[in-house]
């Protein structure tokens, strides 16, 4: 691990979206979030991998779909690991599925595509030169990774065995020790969270989880935005679909959007005055 890494093993560190038409996908997100995109694949490659940047720093990517993959567009979550092969073995042992065996991505890192026992797919990333997203929790960057599952007990057993995660407050995945790492990187972080009224152990949170019996299990992504209403309106103008119009929720104002090729995501504006919304409902 490098001194300035913002991730430790077990923390989601990167997202990308696979799109039937990556050029169209890149154009949509560039307009929506102001991303600067660069295709990192060598000339003549059959596919494209547009890395998106804010202020010159990596935030996400838009890619072609791998050969033989389903046609549906989707957002993908990557979890930082020390050893992709060892993690893949843990997934098998815990009852998960290996969708793609570990392989090297040039000198960027090593990855595998996996699924939990309920069928939610995710990826693991053993970093080499690529050290994950460098900008998070800002407008147009990753704010949260979200697991939708039909089996919370099964998910707890699986992700606990694979990554050491624990469910806290019935809706968050916590990684013991993550808060200590963040405090070392940003002294005073814990005190700031406490002053703001954050839930106990929120500094250990690495993702969220919700039980959704009527949905296919999946990992979703949430972007931070300056104005959820404006993002929803702009997405519609660009050919996307507003799946859930903007609404207020605890701590945030949020909307769910589907891009023109069908990959859905959530956009959150942080609204501290909403922190107690619904607490007595």
Topology:
Elements: E1 12-19, H1 22-33, E2 36-39, E3 49-54, E4 57-64, E5 74-80, H2 84-93, E6 97-105, E7 109-115, E8 121-127, E9 141-149, H3 152-163, E10 166-168, E11 172-174, H4 178-185, H5 189-196, E12 205-211, E13 218-224, H6 228-237, E14 241-249, E15 252-258, E16 264-270
Parallel strand pairs: 1-4, 5-8, 9-12, 13-16
Antiparallel strand pairs: 1-5, 2-3, 3-4, 6-7, 7-8, 9-13, 10-11, 11-12, 14-15, 15-16
CATH superfamily: 2,3-Dihydroxybiphenyl 1,2-Dioxygenase, domain 1
Strand content: 35-45%
Number of helices: 6
* Spatial extent as radius of gyration: 18 Å
Q: Fraction of residues in helices? A: 10-25%
Number of domains: 1
Please report the first level of CATH classification, the CATH class: Alpha Beta
- What distance separates the N and C termini? 45 Å
Helix- and strand-based class?
alpha+beta
Counting DSSP E segments of at least 2 residues, the number of strands comes to 16
Low-pLDDT parts are none
> What is the succession of H and E elements?
EHEEEEHEEEEHEEHHEEHEEE
Average the pLDDT over all residues and give the rounded result. 94
What spatial form do the alpha-carbon principal axes imply?
globular
CATH fold naming: 2,3-Dihydroxybiphenyl 1,2-Dioxygenase, domain 1
CATH architecture classification name: Roll
Q: If strands are numbered along the chain, what order do they take across the biggest sheet?
A: 2-3-4-1-5-8-7-6
Q: Largest sheet, described in full?
A: 8 strands, mixed
């Amino acid at each position: 691990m490098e001194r300035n890494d913002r991730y430790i093993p077990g923390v989601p560190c990167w997202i990308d979206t696979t799109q039937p038409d990556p050029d169209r996908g890149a154009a949509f997100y560039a307009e929506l979030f102001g991303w600067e995109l660069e295709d990192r694949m060598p000339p003549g490659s059959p596919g494209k991998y547009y890395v998106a940047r804010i202020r010159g720093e990596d935030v996400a990517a838009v890619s072609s779909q791998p050969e033989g993959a389903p046609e549906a567009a989707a957002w993908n979550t990557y979890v930082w690991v020390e050893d992709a092969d060892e993690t893949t073995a843990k997934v098998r042992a815990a009852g998960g599925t290996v969708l793609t065996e570990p392989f090297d991505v040039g000198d960027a890192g090593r990855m595998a595509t996996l699924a939990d026992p309920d069928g939610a797919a995710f990826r693991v990333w053993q970093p080499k030169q690529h050290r994950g997203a460098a900008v998070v929790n800002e407008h147009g960057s990753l704010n949260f990774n979200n697991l939708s599952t039909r089996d919370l007990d099964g998910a707890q057993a699986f992700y606990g065995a694979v990554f050491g995660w624990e469910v806290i407050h019935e809706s968050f995945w916590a990684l013991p020790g993550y808060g200590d790492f963040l405090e070392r990187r940003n002294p005073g972080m814990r005190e700031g969270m406490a002053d703001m009224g954050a839930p106990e152990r929120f500094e250990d949170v690495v993702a969220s989880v919700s039980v959704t019996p009527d949905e296919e299990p999946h990992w979703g992504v949430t972007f931070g935005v300056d104005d959820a209403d404006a993002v929803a309106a702009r997405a519609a103008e660009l050919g996307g679909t507003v799946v859930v119009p903007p609404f207020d929720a605890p701590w945030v104002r949020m909307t769910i959007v589907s891009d023109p090729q069908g990959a859905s995501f959530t956009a959150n504006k942080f609204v501290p005055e909403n922190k107690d919304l619904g607490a007595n409902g």
